[in-house]
């Protein structure tokens, strides 16, 4: 059983930056592809970014490409989401998720395929 705890959310003005962290415990972190998802009020959960087990492959939603960067530190069992040039439409609860995989370079954007989820952290971007 993997436990995931997000941190780093908060209130920021448009154009600002935030760095989210997700600390994992209870499993072998390097066996999991890690993803970031978000859900805004009244909207469905959507994919934001994912990073492969080895960290050599990443995928981003079109809406965040060029502004967000996902990274991981397998020694610290932590995945990060650096968010720059934030916009009001980025306001949401952000969740990290873990999916076990045998493929070190695979990334996944389908939320239903992820096995473990954190409790989420609120990001609010004011205009």
Structural topology:
Layout lengths: L2 E5 L2 E4 L4 E8 L6 E8 L6 E6 L6 E3 L7 E6 L4 E6 L8 E9 L15 E2 L3 E6 L1
Parallel strand pairs: 2-11
Antiparallel strand pairs: 1-3, 3-8, 4-5, 4-9, 5-6, 7-8, 9-10, 9-11
Report on this model:
Strand 4 and strand 5 (46-51) form a beta hairpin. With 127 residues, the chain is mainly β. The mean pLDDT is 97. The chain has no helices and 11 strands.
Oligomer state equals single chain
The percent of residues in helical segments reads under 10%
The largest sheet is: 7 strands, mixed
> Unreliable segments (pLDDT under 50, ≥5 consecutive)?
none
How large a portion of the residues is in β-strands, by DSSP E?
over 45%
Q: Indicate the radius of gyration in whole angstroms.
A: 13 Å
Q: What's the shape?
A: globular
Distance between the termini: 40 Å
The number of helices is 0
**pLDDT averaged over residues:** 97
State the secondary-structure class. Answer: mainly beta
How many beta-strand elements? 11
- Name the helix and strand elements from N-terminus to C-terminus, one letter apiece: EEEEEEEEEEE
Keywords:
globular; 0% helix; mainly beta; 7-stranded mixed β-sheet; 127 residues
Briefly summarize what is shown:
With 127 residues, the chain is mainly beta. The protein is built from no helices and 11 strands.
């Amino acid at each position: 059983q993997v436990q995931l705890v997000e941190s780093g959310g908060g209130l920021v003005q448009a154009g600002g930056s935030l760095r989210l962290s997700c600390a994992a415990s209870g499993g072998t972190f390097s066996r999991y592809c890690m993803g970031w998802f978000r859900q805004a009020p009244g909207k469905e959960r959507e994919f934001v970014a994912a990073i492969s087990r080895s960290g050599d492959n990443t995928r981003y939603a079109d809406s965040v490409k060029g502004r967000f960067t996902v990274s991981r530190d397998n020694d610290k069992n932590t995945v990060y989401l650096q968010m720059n040039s934030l916009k009001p439409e980025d306001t949401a609860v952000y969740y990290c998720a873990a999916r076990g995989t045998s493929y070190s370079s695979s990334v996944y954007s389908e939320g239903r395929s992820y096995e473990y989820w954190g409790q989420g952290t609120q990001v609010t971007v004011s205009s």
